[in-house]
Amino acid sequence: MLDGLSPSRRDGLRGAAIVVLTLAAYLPVLDGGFVWDDAAHLIENIVLEEKGLYRVWLTTESMVYYPVVWTSYWLEHQLWDLEPAGYHIVNVLLHAAGALLVWRILLRLGVPGAWLAALLFALHPVNVETAAWITQRKNTLCFVFYALSILLFLRYEDEDRGASLGYGAAIGSFLFSMLSKGAGATLPFVLLLLAWWRRGRITRRDLSNALPFLAVSICISLLEIGFQYGNAIGAEVVHQEGLAARLAGAGWIACFYLYKALWPLSLSFVYPRWEVDPGDPVAWLPTLLVALAFFLCWRMRQRWGRAPLTVLAYFLLALAPVLGFFDFYYMMYSLVGDHYQYVAIVAVIAGAVGGATALAARLAAAPRRGLAAASTLVILFFFALTWQRSTVFADGETLWRDAIAKNPDAFLAHYNLGIILQDRGAHQEAAHHYRAVLRTRPYSERARNNLGSALLATGALDEAIAQFELAIRSRPDSVEAHNNLGNALRDAGRLEEAEDRYRHCIALDPSVAAAHRNLAGVLRMQGRYAEAKRELGAARRLKAATAP
């Protein structure tokens, strides 16, 4: 159909098709709202406060060091304030841009079926978690600059070896990728891998060209690790397994991502968190299978060519930061997540499509038509799955209910759904989900405290008091729990005990205006009007001091 057009016209139509089909597949989320920490990444982000850009670029105030991402949020906030639609559209367009770059990279590498592979990357259901979740702007931006860096580097190698502009642009693009997220930290090794795949060897020049990329990778990775351990994780233990368990678990993680890339059904926002026992021989099977696959691809490289080993090596390199050897906060909930294989999944798609396309070129016309029909079916299948998965990300309640349906023990999903229901006034259902959290996290002070608040709202005073007391036992310095216990005791008519709770709360944090106001109310109920007046005055002064 496109044979009669000029190459530039043909490429323009193919590129437009990728963008249009991507936007169409993500239509359900374009009118969606914020989910989970989207609002926190925007409303509570210091980039939107005074001297915000300076603070995210040049201080350690942020939870993580992603200044390019925070700057993108700042720019968009100037355009459409806190309207979710604008952020969603930009995220999906960045995802489409990444797919276009994948197409151009695969074309330059001579991979068969480059356009089809790029389209399948754009429509792959696993990538919905990245493209539809505003918080994952770090993923889409990281990948766009990552892919652009590879493309610029390949162009420098093929067309511009004598000039430094293209090479410098490739390094600059990689720097922006790392300042968006450290997911592409292994790019220097990817460049060496591509050199080996294209020429069958790695020269001194290849090593020399990779050194500046390695320097950028090490410096920004160390900076990001410092932020993760110092600001995001803090004193919390998110992954306490030893080296043996992590090594065995790495095989499970890699095989899980490969399985989801090839069979993207039953996707979940929170997968069950595995416990890998290195003392069990079965726990080592996935790691041994990965090692065996790597060994076979190396031994058979003369017969099979270098492509299978390149695909496997890129897949593992891209996954290296999330194979469990380095701690990051999300490990508290699960060792895997769809968005963590966003950079790696390109290898699986390109390998599968490239292999099928190369096979089709050797077949007769009828089998080739059969493969073409199969490709169309896969495109339609992925489009339908991505559309359906996008609907899940339209709002927080839908997302958490879907996660619970697929992982009933997902305490993160139960907790956040409980908050949404409690804010809506559905206190009994919220209490049900908080109880589900406590079945697996009995020492969660926040879940106990929220459960007590939900019970208090339904009039179950004795049970609410019991939950607040358990919350305080788990965390004695919880100002909120002490204040809430005071409210429950007040409603139960136990005024002296309520007064004691409020005073304890104020001793922990004198700046809590609500505690002063609540104490004033209890004192007034006891006829102690002068004391009540002083506490009410303190509450008013604190409120005035925090007013914008």
- What is the helix fraction of residues, given as a range? over 70%
Shape: elongated
Q: Spans of 5+ residues with little confidence (pLDDT < 50)?
A: none
Share of residues in strands:
under 5%
What is the count of β-strands?
Answer: 0
Write down the domain tally.
Answer: 2
Report the biggest beta sheet as strand number plus sense, adding barrel if it closes: none
How many H/I helical runs?
Answer: 27
Mean pLDDT: 91
How is the quaternary structure best described? single chain
Q: Order of SSEs, N→C?
A: HHHHHHHHHHHHHHHHHHHHHHHHHHH
Supply Rg. 27 Å
Summary tags:
single chain; 548 residues; mainly alpha; Serine Threonine Protein Phosphatase 5, Tetratricopeptide repeat
Question: What is the element layout, followed by pairings?
Answer:
Blueprint: H1 7-25, H2 27-30, H3 38-42, H4 52-58, H5 67-80, H6 84-109, H7 114-123, H8 128-131, H9 137-159, H10 165-178, H11 187-199, H12 204-233, H13 243-262, H14 285-299, H15 301-304, H16 307-319, H17 345-362, H18 365-392, H19 396-406, H20 411-424, H21 427-440, H22 445-458, H23 461-474, H24 479-491, H25 495-508, H26 513-525, H27 529-546
Helix pairs in contact: 1-6, 1-7, 1-18, 4-5, 6-7, 6-9, 7-17, 7-18, 9-10, 10-12, 11-12, 11-16, 13-14, 14-16, 16-17, 19-20, 20-21, 21-22, 22-23, 22-24, 23-24, 24-25, 24-26, 25-26, 26-27
